[in-house]
Amino acid sequence: MKQEQCIFCKIIAGEIPSHTLYEDENYKIILDVGPATKGHALIMPKSHYADFYELPEEAAADVIKLAKKMMIHMTDKLKCDGFNLVQNNGEAAGQTVNHFHMHLIPRYKNDGEILKYIAGEPDREELERIKRTITE
Ligand code: 5GP
Ligand code: ZN
After folding, report:
1. Which residues of 45-79 are buried (b: 16+ CB within 10 A; e: fewer)?
2. Could you tell which of 30, 48, 97, 114 is best to mutate to test the pocket of ligand 1, judged by most ligand atoms within 8 Å of the CB?
3. Ligand 1 pocket, CB under 6 A
4. Known catalytic residue: 19?
5. Mind listing the pLDDT tens digit for each residue in 69-115?
6. Is the CB of residue 58 less than 8 Å from the CB of residue 27?
7. Which of 97, 105, 109, 126 has its CA 20 to 30 A from that of 78?
8. Element (H or E) spanning 82, and its range?
9. Which pTM does this prediction carry?
10. Which pLDDT score, from 0 to 100, does residue 3 have?
11. Hey, is 107 helix, strand or coil?
């Protein structure tokens, strides 16, 4: 299920080196080469799925379980103060590598505004319209 042009498939195949934190038959966790903070890592399935839309439910469950274990382990080892789990889908959402992955980002007091959005101010009618769009 390897995609020839996929950089993460190449890493998984050992064609591009990476700093591997964990590996089993189906998943790999590596350090991000452009880390937001010390220890920023990426969980990925070894099979190629473009994003979370494509990821089978069973793999999604595995990824979350793995993320929880690794987050606890990394928090203990790195002595970080908090943790972000981030997962981007599609260019509009900031995805740059189209092989599903979840970011594990250890956070440290005063490490800056790494993940920040500007809060909107919708009125109640707008929220109600959005709710109806999603639920009806
Ligand atoms: P995305 O923006 O798709 O959610 O995240 C892609 C991530 O992959 C980025 O944080 C980027 O630094 C990382 N990345 C891109 N190329 C490589 C690579 O060759 N090796 C590693 N370890 N990380 C990479
Ligand atoms: Zn791939």
Report:
1. bbbbbbbbeebeeebeebbeebbeebbeebbeeee
2. 97
3. 7, 16, 18, 30-34, 42, 88, 94-97
4. no
5. 999 999 999 999 999 999 999 999 999 999 999 999 999 999 998 88
6. no
7. 97
8. strand 82-86
9. 0.96
10. 81
11. strand
Residue with tokens 């943790």: 83
Identity at 71, one-letter amino acid code? M
The ligand placed nearest to the CA atom of residue 28 is: 1
Question: Token digits for 107?
Answer: 């956070």
The DSSP symbol for 49 reads: -
Per residue in 24-62, pLDDT (tens digit) is 999 999 999 999 999 999 999 999 999 999 999 999 999
Q: Which atom of ligand 1 is nearest to the CA of 103?
A: 4
7 CA from centroid of ligand 1 (Å): 9
